[in-house]
Every structure is written in structure tokens, then in C-alpha cells.
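Q&A log
Question type: sequence-to-structure
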Amino acid sequence: MSIFNELMPQYQLMPDAYREIPTAEMERRVREIKQKYGDELLIPGHHYQRDEVIQFADVTGDSLELARLASLNTKARHIVFCGVHFMAETCDILTQEHQHVILPDQRAGCSMADMANIVQTEEAWRLLTEQVGDTILPLTYVNSTAEIKAFVGRRGGATVTSSNARQVIEWALKQRKRILFLPDQHLGRNTAYQLGIPLEEMAVWDPYAQRLLTDKNPEQIRIILWKGHCSVHEKFTTAQIADMKRRDPDIRVIVHPECTHDVVVAADDAGSTKYIIDRIHQAPAGTKWAVGTEMNLVRRLAAQHPDQQIVSLNPDLCPCLTMNRIDLPHLLWSLECIDRGEATGIIKVPEAIAEDAKAALERMFEHV
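Response status: OK
Response body:
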């Protein structure tokens, strides 16, 4: 028995034999199952997925877009979600009871989502409300667990995406004097700054020290940022931007708002995954881009636009490791388990949590 089996016995692992199947054979078997099930099978694929997986995706997009598209497809009984755990949870929350959401490898998590657990969040809320009273509205990035979404939903807050964070934060600040933004401090800081809120009115909440990391009176703080981040986007630096510009002054740097504030300020442009994709799709031939986001997407954009020069801002960056747990062998195994009537990796959010989490999601939809 492996160490992982001992630590995570609830997860069924893919048999090692799938690693030995030739790629062409795996692709053939995936296509056969897709053809056999037709509309009863849906494979959503996140933009950061490997090409070997994304080639079989019925729909592609960011996490929330995929969940929404899945919720509109009521014919699919089996939804094999090629993303990470929190995305599959969101998909389950938004889809119907007769639909089963399956994650091909349940080890595909998200380090950012794991940086805010419900125990820490409940304690932070207690301590913060003791300091500033009933003046806080919680918001959470969709890159969070269902429990955190439910926490936010129960308290009148909403989820946000990198595409609509600005609109949701604007709405939230009309409801309460201040917000608690979970779990990505950088998206919260960058968005609030774009809205004209000075950095001096923001502070980070450290869930381990259980305090605001500021010398200011908490009453002066309007944006409380959870101490969390994306392990991929934090690896982009201003030094990389300076080096890229030094080597090619004509190149444009575009980054995701999960990057640190200094990187977003130094870049030529910044926006969500969809914004980056659309910006490059619309750019004329000959345009040069250094892109600060996940490597699989950067490589795919470069392949799709050979008439442009598209490189990663950090050429040494690895793809998102947890996202890359979903590979062709896991996809095939997941589909063949369904075909045998032995579906594994089913993601099911408890009803009470799903109800409150859905309230947070729907509140976002209402205000953007």
C-alpha cells in the first residue's frame, strides 16, 4: 500500500496499468466512449488543462464559466470535470440532482483554496467583528471550497471571479463599510486599488497569527485581505518584466490579477484569463506578448497565434501541478469506470452547504 493510500484511503487511485497504454490507444478508447454516450456525457475542460485532455473537452473556459455551461446542459447525466476540486464542487452546486459530477483524480486540488478553511474563517470572523462590529461583508473568490462559499452566502456576501471582482466589490462596499476578501489577497488588493481605494486602507488578515497585519486602527481598514495566494501567479516578478523589456522594448506584458500588486502595476495590461485570451485573439499579426499566467494556456495561445510572438513572462515556470494531475490516463480511467457502471471520483456537496454556497453564487450573478 502506498503512503498516499494510507493518508487518503477514501480516494480510489487509478490502476498503474493505465500508464502503460499507448497514447493512440487511450485516445481511441476515449473517443469511443464519448460517441457511445453522446449527450449523456459532458466533459468540461479548464483553460489550464493539458492539451492531451483539452482535445476531448466539449466546452472550455474558466472555472465558473464551465460550471454555468454545465448547469445549462440538463441532458448530461455524467459530467467529467477536467479541472480541480473546488471547480467540480461549484459545478455540483449549480447542476441538477440527476447529474453526477466526476473529478478524474480527486488529488487535483488547489493550494489557494486550501489556504482558507472553515475553522480559520469562523474564528477570523469572530475576532474581526469583535473589533469593528457588524460592518463587514464577506466576499470569496470562486477559487475557494464549498464550505467557504457557504460561509459567505450565510452572511449576505457573494462570490467573485477575476472577471467581475470589480463590480462585486463595488456592490459590497455599498452594503457595508468594509469587506473581508477570501482567499486571494492579490486579486482583492489589485481590484480594490483599481477602484481608488488606497493601499493604506487595506490590511492582510493572518489566519495563523489570528490578527490584522497592520499598525493602524482596524476602524481605518476598509479592505481586509485573507493571507492567501496562487502559487503559480506569485512566481511572476517585476525583475522578469524589466528583463523582458530590456531584451525587447516592443513586447507587451499582460498578467493575471492574481499576480502581486507590484507586478500588476508594472505590466502593460492585466485581466482575467478570459480577458488575456480575448486580448490576444483580437491583437494584430506581429504583436509581441509576454504573458503572466499558467504555462499550459500560454503555450496553447502561442500555438493558436503563430503570427504573433507569445512567450511566458517566466520561461522557467512549471504548469499548475494540481491541475496537471488530470491527464489522459485519468480521463480514460474515469470514463471507463462510468462505462462499467462503477463511476468513481463523484463530487457531492452536502445539501446544507450547497444551499448556502449557491446563495453566494446567485448573489454574484444578480449584481454583475
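Response note: The longest strand covers residues 136-141.
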